[in-house]
């Protein structure tokens, strides 16, 4: 039955539309810097370009590849096609989809899960784009409000506020699996100064691979 | 044509891309809503999914807008608007823009006035994020096929596999919340703000769960995550005032 779900007309069309729209949007996004260069008759500065690419690409390409294998199974196909175009996956789209699927009692590898994940991510993407669009239009009056120290303090704590709530839901349901990776991550993040906000993305695959290995051992021993 | 970081042409180019991305989201949303009806899914569940996603998105989206404002000081509004409402993430774009500006001998507080500098930054930011955009359309079907195959072989392990992935990701972010706590030994109490916010959010989530079970108020669980997020963020203000 699960195999059949991949062969439904809806899923076949989802993959087809996702692939075509994803590649077209990728092309459009790639064209942007070229279009700016042509419009203003300006070539990039080669040495800073190469230095910048060397500083950014190796890490982000490696993380990007691992993120695909980590996030696609959690997001489902429709959710993945949308999320990797609209961005802000770990701090917005993925928690939104996980919460929606959890409440609806469905999983990403079912057609109902696909539908719920796609709806939550599409709605979240549209709302984000609209809010930013409105914000950009009102940027002059909004800037002093949004840059107020009090609000800055709140915005700086989005990830702790997000994962505190999400952690309760998932850890309470799977304490046997959850406690060891949390203990490991606590030790690593507290003892290694280089692990911080900018490197947390690298630690997500590390956490996932460790948890998979750990739970596989527990499962093989019959403890789960 | 004289260059400016807020040149109308940049807004037109960005506007075209954002409308195209918006179109993709609307298309997927409409298809999923239609499919939910065909599958006979409960209309209330779909309504709650939509409402909860809207509520949940507001606070993080405003934080992303703050990121746009921060980057707009050097790059104008159009490029950060594109990068943060589409494709990128708050943490990536700040690092990528910072690295590119640094390579040009500039910083995020100085407005880019030269078109070549701007194009260089735009190229670096685009190249850095392009891997996901290229590979997801090519790999998603294969990854999903592999998961379904695994599920057909061993259903129980497949469930554990999914839960392990969620928990591995959550564990990494919970670890991150504590990344600065060793600063406490140097007298810096501000490092306690993230753990306190996390605990506050967790407590709100637990209270929602208890109320839902004890008083049979099922709807509260539908909004528990947005509520815990907003209360956690709101409490960050007094915690920061208190601990610095």
Task: Break the fold down into its secondary structure elements and pairings.
The complex is a heterodimer of chains A (224) and B (244).
Chain A: H1 2-6, H2 9-40, H3 46-86, H4 89-104, H5 111-137, H6 139-146, H7 149-155, H8 158-173, H9 175-191, H10 200-220
Helix pairs in contact in A: 2-3, 3-4, 3-5, 3-10, 4-5, 8-9, 9-10
Chain B: H1 8-38, H2 43-75, H3 78-85, H4 90-103, H5 115-153, H6 155-177, H7 193-214, H8 219-222, H9 224-243
Helix pairs in contact in B: 1-3, 2-3, 2-9, 4-5, 5-6, 7-9
Summary tags:
heterodimer, A: 224 residues, mainly alpha, 10 helices, globular, B: 244 residues
3D architecture notes:
Helix content of chain A is 85%, strand content 0%. Chain A has helices at 2-6, 9-40, 46-86, 89-104, 111-137, 139-146, 149-155, 158-173, 175-191, 200-220. In chain A, 52% of the residues are buried. Chain B is built from 9 helices and no strands. Chain B has helices spanning 8-38, 43-75, 78-85, 90-103, 115-153, 155-177, 193-214, 219-222, 224-243. Classes of the chains: A mainly alpha (224), B mainly alpha (244). Chains A and B meet through helix 1, helix 2, helix 3, helix 4 and helix 5 of A and helix 1, helix 2, helix 3, helix 4 and helix 5 of B.
**Helical percentage of chain B:** over 70%
What is the element string of chain B, with H for helices and E for strands? HHHHHHHHH
Class of secondary structure makeup of chain A: mainly alpha
How many angstroms separate the termini of chain B? 48 Å
Report how far apart the termini of chain A are: 25 Å
Number of strands of chain A: 0
H/E series of chain A: HHHHHHHHHH
Overall mean confidence score, pLDDT of chain B:
92
Which word captures the global form of chain B? Answer: globular
Spans of chain A of at least 5 consecutive residues whose pLDDT stays below 50 are none
Helices of chain B, by number, come to: 9
Q: How many β-strand stretches of chain B?
A: 0
Q: Largest interface here, residues on each chain?
A: A-B, 162 and 161 residues
């Amino acid at each position: 039955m699960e195999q059949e779900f991949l062969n439904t007309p809806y899923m076949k069309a989802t993959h087809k539309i996702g692939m075509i729209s994803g590649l077209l949007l990728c092309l459009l996004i790639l064209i942007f810097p070229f279009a700016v260069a042509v419009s203003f008759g300006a070539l990039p500065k080669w040495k800073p370009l190469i230095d910048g690419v060397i500083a950014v690409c190796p890490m982000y390409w490696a993380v990007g590849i691992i993120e695909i294998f980590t996030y696609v199974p959690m997001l489902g196909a429709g959710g993945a096609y949308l999320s990797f175009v609209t961005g802000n996956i770990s701090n917005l789209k993925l928690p939104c989809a996980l919460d929606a699927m959890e409440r609806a009692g469905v999983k990403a590898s079912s057609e109902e899960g696909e539908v719920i994940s796609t709806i939550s991510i599409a709605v979240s993407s549209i709302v984000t784009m609209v809010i930013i669009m409105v914000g950009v239009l009102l940027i002059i009056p909004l800037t002093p409000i949004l840059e107020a120290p009090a609000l800055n303090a709140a915005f700086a704590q989005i990830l702790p506020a997000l994962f505190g709530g999400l952690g309760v839901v998932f850890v309470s349901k799977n304490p046997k699996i959850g406690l060891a990776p949390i203990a490991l991550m606590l030790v690593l993040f507290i003892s290694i100064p280089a692990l911080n906000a900018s490197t947390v993305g690298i630690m997500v695959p590390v956490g996932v691979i460790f948890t998979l290995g750990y739970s596989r051992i527990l499962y093989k021993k019959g403890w789960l | 044509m004289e260059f400016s970081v807020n040149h109308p042409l940049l807004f037109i180019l960005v506007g075209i891309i954002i409308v195209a991305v918006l179109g993709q989201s609307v298309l997927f949303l409409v298809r999923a809503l239609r499919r939910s009806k065909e599958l006979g899914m409960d209309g209330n569940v779909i309504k709650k999914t939509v409402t909860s996603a809207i509520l949940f998105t507001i606070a993080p989206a405003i934080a992303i807008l703050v990121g746009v404002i921060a980057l707009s000081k050097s790059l104008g509004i159009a490029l950060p608007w594109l990068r943060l409402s589409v494709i990128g993430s708050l943490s990536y774009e700040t690092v990528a823009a910072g690295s590119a500006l640094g390579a040009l001998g500039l910083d995020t507080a100085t407005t880019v006035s030269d078109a070549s500098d701007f194009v260089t930054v735009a190229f670096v930011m685009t190249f850095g994020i392009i891997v996901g955009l290229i590979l997801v359309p090519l790999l998603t079907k294969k990854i999903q096929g592999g998961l379904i195959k695994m599920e057909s072989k061993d259903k129980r392990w497949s469930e554990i596999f999914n839960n392990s992935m969620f928990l591995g990701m959550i564990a990494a972010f919970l670890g991150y919340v504590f990344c600065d706590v060793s600063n406490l030994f140097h007298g810096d109490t501000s490092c306690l703000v993230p753990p306190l916010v996390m605990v506050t959010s967790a407590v709100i989530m637990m209270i929602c769960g208890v109320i839902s079970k004890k008083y049979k108020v099922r709807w509260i669980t539908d909004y528990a995550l947005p509520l815990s997020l907003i209360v956690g963020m709101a409490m960050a203000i007094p915690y920061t005032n208190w601990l610095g």
